[in-house]
Amino acid sequence: MLNAMSSLPFWEGHIVRSVEDLEDGALLIILDTCPASEPQCGACRRPCSLVHERRRRKVRDRDCLDRRVWLDLPIRRLDCHHCNARVTEHISWLDRRARITHRVRVWVEALAQLLPIAHVARLTGLHWHTIKDIDHQRLQRLHGDFSANDVRRLVMDEFALHKGHRYATVALDAERMKVLWVGEGNSREAIRPFFEKLGPEGCQRVEAVAMDMNSAMDLEVRAQCPNAEVVYDLFHVVTRFGREVVDRVRVDQANTLRAEPKARQVIKRSRWLLLRNRDNLKSEQAIKLEELLAANKPLSTVYLLKTELKEIWYAPTVREGARRWKSWLRLALDSQIAPLIQFAKRLAKYRRGILASAIYPMSSSTLEGVNNRIKVIKRMAYGFRDSAYFFLKIKDAFPGKVR
Length: 403
Hints:
Elements: H1 2-6, E1 14-21, E2 27-33, E3 51-64, E4 67-80, E5 85-88, H2 102-112, H3 117-124, H4 128-143, E6 153-162, E7 166-173, E8 178-184, H5 188-205, E9 208-211, H6 215-224, E10 229-232, H7 234-255, H8 261-268, H9 271-275, H10 283-295, H11 297-313, H12 318-333, H13 338-347, H14 351-355, H15 364-381, H16 387-397
Parallel strand pairs: 2-4, 6-9, 9-10
Antiparallel strand pairs: 1-2, 3-4, 4-5, 6-7, 7-8
Helix pairs in contact: 2-4, 3-4, 4-16, 5-6, 7-8, 7-11, 10-11, 11-12, 15-16
Domain Transposase IS204/IS1001/IS1096/IS1165 helix-turn-helix: 89-138
Domain Transposase IS204/IS1001/IS1096/IS1165 DDE: 154-394
Pfam family, one: HTH_Tnp_ISL3
């Protein structure tokens, strides 16, 4: 086995002296410098024969079949006469001061893209922090630099970073599906660094920004991007309608039926029937929904107006969108349902951004997809310990597509 391994080109500039079995079942391969190979300076990468000192280092290499592999190799400190520096020699397969070879680093980088860090650590036998540092360096190389060339349409959204109402904001190129920037916070001051990175010319190019009804984000976009049209996202508006109108009316209707426990329970348990899209219901669920709406006029009204509200975003022109908006607003104000009337009056302030969807039909599924993917990343992480790494993972999940 030793003779066979001595001839393998795994460790350039070194030869195998011996192989030992360790108590834990791992292999320890002891290397010596190859007599025919002259060391290279770690600074100028030129050959240097002046050796100042020699030390040995134990490093981890890629597993061989089912065995962990450790290397014991000499590390020479050179006195380079070319650059007048006293530095450690350059080894092509091992970084300076590293305790793992390039093969291990590439292996870990591949695994970290598929598995949680804790699982990679158990699989490789490396420490959690070692895995995280390797993956962090990979992400920094790929996504550390800010790049937003020719961006014209943006999607901006906030997501929960931690418990306790701590949020972060993500900016996405809507055309390339590429995350451009992620920052902690959702205030105007928190998102301003993104526009500073975008620069005056970049801000001038932006023609539309899709977002939820976040007043801070709205004001900052209008201040930084004078040519941009704010487009309010359908998904967020419908979600808010469900929370502020459908849920409120459902609870109110259930409270009016305290004398009829069975009927009250039917309404109390109907939340998901009312909030889900009709197309996503099974046949038996659709039948229950029809029976519920037929038996309760207020719930039927808000459910139908929720459906009509979506149609405003699908208008082919601004004029048609305005017509649909006026019709919807009139029905809402005439409904005599207090939560619906309050919601309609608040929504009227955002009419321009709603009708802008006819000019810039930016799909609400984009933001929904981003939020869902972020939740998956958080679950895989079992809690990231620093925000910078988490933000790089988000950027890695949305690298963008070629136009």
